[in-house]
Amino acid sequence: MITIRAMKSSKRHGGICGRSRRLVIAVVAALAVMSPTASAASDDGGLTWRACEGEGTPTGLQCAAIEVPVDWAQPDGKITLDLARLSATEPAGRIGSVLSISGGYGIEDLSRGAANLTELRRRFDLVGFNTRTTVWITQMPEACKEPGAVLHDPRNKKQYTAQAAAMTKALTTCQQADATGLFTHLDALSIARDVEAIRQALGEQRLSFTAHSLGGVAAAAYARLFPQRIRAMYVDSVGNQTKGWPAHHLQLLPVSQRMIARFAEWCADTPACALHGQDAEAVWRRLLRAADRHPIPVTSPQHGTGKLTGWLLGALVPRDPGPQNADWLTFATSVDKAARGDGSGFADVALFTARYSATPGALAMSCGDERGYTSYAQLEDFLGKARKIAPEYAGAEISLLGCTGWPLPVANPAPPTAHPRPAAPAGCRHHMGELPPNQELHQHDPGIGDHRLRRARTRHLPVRQEMSDPACHHLPDRPDPAQAGHHLSSRRATRRARRRRHKQARRGDHPSMVSGWSDDSGGVAIS
C-alpha cells in the first residue's frame, strides 16, 4: 500500500541540465518550501498528483509522495520521498515517462530545467524525485555534522592507520546517534530500489531515465538490477565504479592536466586573465610545489581556519570555465594571489572541501558504495600509478580518505564487469557499457550534452565519432595484421548487431539503451 502525503520540496542552485557538484549539509538552511494545493487528481498507477505551489514553480508542475522502506531487506520502517511531474503536452502522442535520478534534490532540478525541456515534454511525462539522501540531510543528528579528522595526505602506514581510526570513531558515533536507520542505507542499491518502487507507482512497464552526478551511480545500479525496465537512459558525469573508485580517480588525473593546459591557453589569449603574459601552467605547478613545502594559512568565515597545501590545491582544478569563463577568471586571480602568499581566493572552497570530505553525515551518502581506500596497500598501489600518470597530482585522493574508516560492510561494492578489457587511460574505458546486456557503445567529443534530449526521445545519438581524447592517441588506428581477421569479423558482427538493435528500437522492443557523459569533457553513449 502506497501512502500519499502532502508534498514538501526544497530549492537549491542547479538544474537538470547541469552537474550537481554538491549535496551539502548547509543547504538545508536555505531551503524554500514548495507545497501542494488542496486539489488532487488520482492516477491509475496509484499516486495522487497535486498542483505544486511556490515561487518560481513552472506552470503545470504536479507533486506527490511515496513511502519506501528504510531497509529494503526489512521493509518495516518507512520514509517518504517527494516526487514532481510535468505531464506531456501532446498526450495523444505520449510515449511514456522520463525519470530524472539526481544527486539529491531532483524536484528542484526538474523545476529549474523545465524551460529547456519543452521538446522532450511533448511526448513524455517528466518526473523528478528527491532521493533518500535529502531525507537524511533534514534528519541528520548533530553528531554527524562535524569533521572526524583534519584530512591530510598520509606519508606512511602509521599516518594512514591513525587517520582511518579517527574517521572510524567519528562515523561510528554518527551511526549510533542516528534514529532513522538511514545511515546504513544511503547506498546506490537502496536508491535503485526506490526508483523501481516509483516506476511501479507510475504504472509504467518501462521508463526512460536521465541521471547525473551521484545519481549516475544509482542509475548504474538500477541498470544491473532491473535492465528489462529501461527503455532509454542518459547518464551525465557519472563516476566509474566498476573498477573501484581509486581506479576511477586515476582516470581523472589526465583530465586535471588537460584542464590546466586548456586554462593556460585561454589565459595566454585573454588580457583579463590575472596570469596573462605568464606561463599560467608553470605558475600553477610552482604554486603546488611551494605550498607543499610551506603551507599557506587561510581563514574562511564559514569554515574556520586551515592551511593550503599543494595536495589540497590539486583537488581544486576547475573542470570547466564557467559562464563567460567566470570560473577561470576567478581561478586565475586566486592562483596569482596564492603565488604571492595570499590564499584567500581559495580559502572557502579549500576548507569546505577538507571539512566535507571528513564529515560523517556527508560520507554516509557515498561510503556504502565502496568509495574509499580499502587498505594502505591499495593506497600505495594508487600512488605508484598516479606518479606515472600525473606526478603533480600524485597524492591520496581526498574524497576517498574519509571512507577509509567506514565501520560497516560495503552495501554496493564495485561489480565485476562482464568483459574485462585491457587498461587504458582516462576517456578510453567504457565499463558502463558492460553492466546491462544488449548494448552498443559510442564515444563522443565534448558536446554530447547537446544531444541528450534527442537521446531520451528517440533512443539514438548522432553517428559514432572517432575518439579524439588526447589520452587515447596511443591506441592503434588499425588492428595488428596478425589480428586483422579477428578484428574484421568483430566489426562485421558489431555492425550486424547494431542494425538488428536499431530495427528492434523502431519496433519499440529494444531491451535497454543507455547513453552517458564521461567526467573528462568527453561523452560516452551506450545503447
Automatic annotation (TrEMBL):
Single annotated GO MF: catalytic activity
Domain of life: Bacteria
Basic and acidic residues bias: start-end ranges: 471-480
UniProt feature, compositional bias: Basic residues: 488-505
Domain AB hydrolase-1: 185-287
Protein's UniProt keywords contain Signal: yes
Pfam families: Abhydrolase_1
Region span, Disordered: 413-449, 469-527
Species: Nonomuraea dietziae
SUPFAM superfamilies: alpha/beta-Hydrolases (SSF53474)
Signal peptide start-end: 1-40
Comp. bias (Pro residues): 413-423
Descriptive protein name: Pimeloyl-ACP methyl ester carboxylesterase
Keyword terms: Signal
